[in-house]
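Standup notes, structure subgroup. Blocker cleared on the magnesium ion input:
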Amino acid sequence: MKAKAAVDPSSSSSSRVIVITSGKGGVGKTTTTANLGTCLARLGQRVALIDADVGLRNLDLLLGLENRVLYTAMDVLNGGCKLEQALIRDKRWPTKLSVLCISKNRQRYHLSRVQMVMLVDALRQGYDFVLIDCPAGIDVGFFNAVGPAQEAIIVTTPDITSIRDADRVVGLLEADGLTEAKLLVNRVRPEMVSQEDMMSVADVQGALGLPLLGAIPEDPQVIISTNRGEPLVLRGQLTPSGIAFQECAQQLVQGGGTELLVRRHLHWGALASQWLGSRASSARNWVVEALTGCLEWLGVLHTPSSSYPGQRGVLRGADSSASEEGGADWDEDSLCLGSDAASQEDTRQG
Ligand SMILES: Nc1ncnc2c1ncn2[C@@H]1O[C@H](COP(=O)(O)OP(=O)(O)OP(=O)(O)O)[C@@H](O)[C@H]1O
Ligand SMILES: [Mg+2]
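Run returned:
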């Protein structure tokens, strides 16, 4: 079986592949993946979560599934099991929410970008959403994780180091041809913002020039829920951060993934943010997008693809070398995702 260079957008599957990334470590990517994934499943969507943090995976911990990781994607790729067997089904939504770990913590890491694309392509057949929890940094793990994605959620905290790293990541994604990016600002502390000790969400959005998916307040319950292995959004009484994650999930489902990337280099986001104020984020997004769309239509603005012809596809160009490196002989059967597939749990019970 030949590896495809990228997920085929014309595939009959209408699933959405979203990478959750940040550049900087520890800003809340895994927390976001677990909580958004859970909310989406609760909304009736079929969701596969991929922990692409190869050496230091912890998505399974946040979901309380750590004792159920029997097989990983590496086992699938090595022919040790089928994809269904490596999927861990969340017992709370066995038909809706599954998790795939790329490797066990001390397993050797030989995954290529092409292999990642193939795994996701196989998963898309059975799921509405595939969320990829990206590792921190911008090394090979990052490039592998973003390879199959059509959309990105950029997670940042309201501090300049995190924002600068996020900005760098947005640039790399654009160069990779991924222009559907949304911003999620995490660990916002309103009391610090009001005292001007912390950047506001509007400031962060202005700096990065991305459509806002949501803002999550700082919340001690996040740490408590992490330690309990139960996503925050499953609490009986939702805290403001739980409500915020839920609203993000609703926006993802309703948004349909057609939102335009605001051209961050042109500062429309910053200007519109200042003009409309911090409480009108959705109206602001609409105005920014309308302005950008009009200017594009008039030919004043160009999309990144035409603005940066030399950069576009630079990263995707890595595919060919990855393909050569990882040129494994594929067992086509192991990547088939049957509707009556057995998950890890089913396998063990069997
Ligand atoms: N809104 C929040 N309020 C309080 N604590 C939070 C919040 N979001 C995340 N945290 C805490 O921040 C820490 C890092 O979160 P998380 O592991 O999700 O980040 P990450 O970006 O995935 O990290 P890494 O880059 O190491 O993978 C965790 O201890 C988590 O509980
Ligand atoms: Mg993480």
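Discussed briefly. The CA atoms of residues 25 and 347 lie 34 Å apart.
Next: hand off to the docking folks.
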